[in-house]
Amino acid sequence: MSKKSAHIAALITGCQGAALDAHYLGYFACFNQGLFYEAHDVLEELWLADRQSPNYAYYKGLIQLAGAFVHLQKNRLRPAGALFLLAQTNLQKYPARHEHFDLLPVHALITEWLGRLIQSDYSVNPLTPDSAPRLKTPVAPPTSAGVA
Fold it and tell me: Domains plus CATH for the chain?
């Protein structure tokens, strides 16, 4: 196990045992704590595991979304804008609700943050410690296993 894998395993420990993949849930846990680089890393492990998955572009879009905020944290505004556009392109390939996650607020979030960058001609970083976005964590519906 690499150091990176051990770090990711530690990040997703609290997400184990749920109905959804721990890497998927770990992405949202990290993102909502403002740990955008870690969110990227956690989901990247799932994304790279199966490049033939129908969710390949979906995971890639979520990774790009987190990456855009990594760029904002580093005050790299134009690369952030470019990743917002790439994330939007990848996520638009999926229905409004995908993998137990509502994508409509994500599309609005991308539009809003990209708009802020464009409006300032990429001269003002809209990300502050108090303005970091949060995503609603997906929840799988309960299964009917064991129900008579």
Answer: 3-119 (1.10.3450.10)
Largest CA distance in the chain: 61
| Residue 108: strand pairing partners | none
Residue 137 near residue 99 (C-beta atoms within 8 A): no
List Cα–Cα distances, 115 to 15, 41, 49, 108, in angstroms. 33, 26, 34, 10
Distance CA 99, CA 136 (A): 13
pTM over 0.85: yes
Pairs from 56-60 (Cβ < 8 Å, separation ≥ 24): 57/90, 57/91, 57/93, 57/94, 58/90, 58/91, 58/93, 58/94, 58/98, 58/99, 60/90
The per-residue pLDDT string of the chain (148 residues; one tens digit each, 9 = 90 and over) reads: 446 667 777 777 777 767 898 999 999 999 999 999 999 999 998 899 878 889 999 999 999 999 999 999 999 999 999 999 999 999 999 999 999 999 999 999 999 999 999 999 999 999 998 999 999 999 887 765 544 4
